[in-house]
User: What shape does this take?
Amino acid sequence: MVKTIPSSRLPNAFNEFGKNLLLVLIFNTGIAVFLTTLLGSGFGANLTYSQSIGLSIFLICFGWAWACRVDQPGAGTIAVAIPVGPVGTSTGVTIASFILCDSRLSDFVQHPEKLIVSFPVASVFGIIIFYYFHSRKRLAESKAALQEESLRRMANEQRLTETNLKLLQAQIEPHFFFNTLSNVQSLIDGEPQKAKHMLESLTRYLRTSLQRTRRDKTTMGQELELLRAYLDIQSIRMGDRLRYEIDIAEELYGIVLPPLLIQPLVENAIKHALEPSLAGGRIHIHARRENGNILVQVSDTGRGLPAEGGSGVGLRNIRDRLRAMYGDQGQLVLQENQPSGVKASLTLPLGEESGRKN
Amino acid sequence: MKQPTAIIADDEAPLRMYLRRQLAKVWPELDIRGEAENGPNALRLIQDCTPDIAFLDIKMPGMTGLEVAAQVTGHCHTVFVTAYDHYAVQAFENAAVDYLLKPVSDKRLRKTISRLQTRISVPPPDISELLEKLSATFRPKASHLQWLKVGQGDEILMLSVDEVDYFQAEDKYTSVVTKDKEWVIRPSIKELETALNPDLFWRIHRGTIVRVDSIARVTREFIGRYQLVLHGHNDPLTVSRTHAHRFKRM
Assistant: This one.
């Protein structure tokens, strides 16, 4: 599916210009009507003058703002906006006078004070118009930003729901089950002890999975029990090609954390690093307290992550859940392990600790 | 008549053993000359023992069963053993090659054996073409760049491209910008453009590639260039005219 930018995010420059132009025309007409009713002079002349002056101010404002690429008016820009009124007025008067072929321009030339008298008013008008259009733009932008924000929140919520669903699914991962049962079947006749052992581990795995009553919390001890059952099964399958070590002090077993953070890392290590390798490798799982956080490290001595693909989705799932639960304080970092392999480091803020161990 | 010979290759020992015992039950005359636990060893074993039949697991470290079969086609009858996979089964059915699902059921094995017994007297066919077609099914889809190796102190960090907000060309290298950090890598913008998923990453400028999801808003100077405002970054990115077409309102 080709990705496109939603149109709510795209600007609409010409439309904006058109809208503003229309407003200016209406505004100028209003002024002409006002002057006509007030002074009783000809509407046509008033209209010509007001449109001419108004449009001149508008276009000068517009053009100058475009030339300076101004986004936000500050004191400096106001200062420069001040002469826009008078310049616009003079230009407008000149043009209108030329169009109507009347003497008003020459009249002003001879008696400049008549024109200059209007300059302060024109300046004020210029600044008002400038501000008006600018605040309309700002309003439109903030509306767009708000809409953007609510869209993003909805998308995030949806992603989180999907993530949680995937999590539930992962707890009862079919391939793993299928594979394990295949192995049990093939061992029953020839090596019944091993078959029994595998079935026991599988039962333990299931029991621990189902014992999790809360979707978003478990203890380190429970997580490790699941992990041990899992690794037990895998090591029967892979034999010498999988060696592992769980190096976590018992005093950390009561720590509360989201489920299925560590196991996917171990699964990744087995799937991408160890299984494809001829010699297999070793997995080391370690956790400790550090600076008020819990640091969990899963390192393997496999062949490392290939540049293309592999484990992108699983790790994104972990990151999403970390962000949902801990915001910026939860982190997943992957590094190259020496001499080969990957070291995945999970940092979790130390929250509550469950009174009961395991 | 010469006793028929075979070898078994599978990376999981329990399954090798299981197949061996089943064959002993169903085809006791079959002489199983050896077992291999990975691709290269399977190939070596076949070359050394020259068996009539090779039972090959598909997913093996080092070399897949298909690759091994491609090397020995014409010299050895091959039977593929595979874990259940919808696409795999389809592919095998279409290619009309012998295959077994693991764990192997007695009934299926008997059928395959009787088929083999009739064909064993003739030399094995060359199935290179069929294998070519099959390997297309089993080959992982052409994938895009997912991981970047960046230096951090004296360690090397694996950075997922999902975390990158944009790439920016610098003098002799490329800068990688994430939400709160910046890194440098060697590949050029041009090289990155070909490697990255084009649906997720767009080149917006001769020197910039942006991750589309990180774009918060597109703004435009009055009658000028497009600019991209990214989530969490203050400075907008400029879109060059050549690439502006992506952002035009439809």
Q: What stands out?
A: Residues 53 and 166 of chain B are 54 Å apart (CA to CA).
